Give the backbone structure.
Amino acid sequence: MAASILRRCWGSLLAQRCRTGDVPVLHNGQTWRRAQAPGSIASGRRAGNSPAGERGVAPWVAVVGLEIHAQISSNSKLFSGSQVQFAAPPNSLVSFFDASLPGTLPALNRRCVEAAVMTGLALNCRINKKSLFDRKHYFYADLPAGYQITQQRLPVAVNGSLSYSLCVGGKKNQMVTRTVRIKQIQLEQDSGKSLHDDTRSQTLIDLNRAGVGLMEVVMEPDMSSGEEAAAAVRELQLILQTLGSSQAIMAEGQLRVDANVSVHHPGEAYGVRTEVKNINSARFLARAIDYEIQRQIKELENGQTVMNETRAFDYKLGCTIPMRDKEGKQDYRFMPEPNLPPLILYDSKSLPANMNHQQVVNIDWIRERLPDLPSVKRVKLVEQYGILPEHSFTLLNEDGLMEFFQNVVRQTQMNPKKVIGWILNDMLCYLKQHNLTVKESPVSSLLLADLLNLLERGAISSSAAKQVFEELWKGEGKTPLQIVKEKKLELIQDQQEFEQICQAVMEGHQEEVMEIKKGNRKVLNKLIGLVQRTTRGRADPVLVKQILEKRLSQ
């Protein structure tokens, strides 16, 4: 009840701010200012000697850091043998250790360690050959032990970096690459899940998730907007999925993001930060961060202070709402985990000769088996097929689309630059409209390749090819050639028939003919379209244009 009242209050407040025009907006890409209602006077606060300050508008710089929890792709949990399965019946995958029964001890999952090392190497981190486990104490119903086993003092990987790209420019057709530093990657166990039943005023606990292995990737505050943060998270998601260290499906809670946000004037110390917790969508992450930046600017410009607190993002209202005061490190009472020895990793140089290789984690062995990362795959796509860099991003961002594209290219004579147009403008558009994945597409790579081969050989026109694609999408099991014959979509080969159709169109549209003869060549496209309509897409547009131009010049 209280939560719903609070959400309504926030929604009313946000609507009021929008009506008065008193909503902060993005300024100059990374500097923020408050938008003014028509006729209002900008704030007189200044920030150094910046041009914006001289105009009477106080600029702001936003600072964004991320903490990302990725669920490790493993058959069992981090410290117990319980199975990991999404959407299993409540409390059906809980061992004695997960329930924190007295006398139970943790046993470290080797697969989880290897996944963390692999991720650290892919993110250019230094892998610590010795790392330690700690207890982080806090009391909540879904944490039976009253503490979480994590790596606070000495994590498994430190000092890395992640390069990501985002679109800029008015048409979003320019790609810029930026880099965010990775402070550390640490292994830790997940908590259970609290299910709140407002109708019965009770909370139910599901411990299936308790003890599932997590990698926490801590990013330094090197970003300044929601768009940058979302791009960094998408790139990390692709890397994790490429490595197989995490499925990183955000909709299933396998990738959850906490955003730390603050604002300050240029040249001043960072402002007080707030943390927006548990965001499970890149789009919502961008919205949450941008809203929080605006909210903090509003608070400060009204002479108020920003609280060091934890907030949640309400995606329906599009705003953040307070959850609780931010807990300091001292509240967690970190202490060494007494039941786990230091985690020792080896490389080829430090591995003892008499050591059983099956019982240790070899950093170099993992490094040698790293697959091509998304950045490398994009470069190869551009170099091999001559496509645009932004097209390579789309191919990799959609699961299975790159493989689909490559399969089509292998089976068709069409230039890859033309194939990519069909993939992105037609195939992907249909998938989005019907909310399907690439694997669920009724048009296979073989069928699309057969269609493009017909088009490339000149057997059908491009408009007829679109009609065939529509028929293929119905999934009736017909081949492109069968559809072409049934619908009689073959190109007209008879030159005399062509001449007669073009002459008939010209005779029926004398006004357009006169316009063209006066010098308005754009009207010629209309005549070409009319011929195409008359032939139901069976006319070659190039040949039609040649015939029309010849007759118009007579």
